[in-house]
């Protein structure tokens, strides 16, 4: 009876605690507005005319609403092909990267593996030194013959040493008693990884997957080096080419004095930003709950 009374009894907060909660909520709200303000400016400016942009600058609410910038971005339909390429590269690349990362991180997290420190040093060495751009280009384009192949956007960057170390540290933070009890029941290393380690490693896997996905989504440099077919252009590279073309047209009009109409260069930059970050902004809230725990747990052990 007494336990029920204690359970149902409401604990009243003191005046100081109430004031503290109110201040925290106000500060958190102001911080959220501060973070969202740049996105609101980008979105509003993407619908502004070039003349008003030059006169009034950035604006959350456009003074003269126009969709000219978005018509230029979405006009010929090439952007949808680029979206398809980028989505394919992001999804397939993230799966391949996580497969490589997990299969290397887990053995290196086990103390029973012989020469694991030597292998770890070789992986760490690649973070300090690399072969350079020219040898890498010759290897990928000549030796591997991957030029103008969609997998050239995945294979050369499929493995990240830093991400592997984060994943290894996460595995090392899992209590060894879980694996030892499974060994006593006759399970092998693959079964332990699949049935015990991976289910409890969801925060770390989600965090590293987000890192890889962002890298693949924002990739453009390899496309500039190895991709010539416009059907294989990823989103970021296509948008960069589009902006460079518009800048070149404006410079030509300025130097020659030839009127080329109103080219919405500034609002086009804002529109390309909205087009490029949309899916990632929608994806992040689903992975955000794993993000903090994935980093902190992965940083406990070295």
What do you see in this structure?
It is a single chain. 72% of the residues lie in helices and 0% in strands. The chain is mainly α and 302 residues long. The chain has one domain: MetI-like fold (Orthogonal Bundle). Helix 4 packs across helix 14 and helix 8 runs parallel beside helix 14. The two termini are 51 Å apart.
CATH class: Mainly Alpha
Low-pLDDT residue spans? 1-7, 297-302
The tally of helices reads 14
What is the CATH-assigned architecture? Orthogonal Bundle
Structural class: mainly alpha
Secondary structure layout:
Elements: H1 2-8, H2 15-45, H3 50-56, H4 68-74, H5 78-108, H6 116-128, H7 133-143, H8 161-172, H9 176-184, H10 189-200, H11 202-217, H12 221-226, H13 235-256, H14 265-298
Helix pairs in contact: 4-14, 5-8, 5-11, 5-13, 8-11, 8-14, 9-10, 11-14, 13-14
Features:
single chain, 302 residues, mainly alpha, MetI-like fold, 14 helices, 72% helix, disordered N terminus, disordered C terminus
Can I get a quick summary?
By secondary structure, the protein is an all-alpha fold.
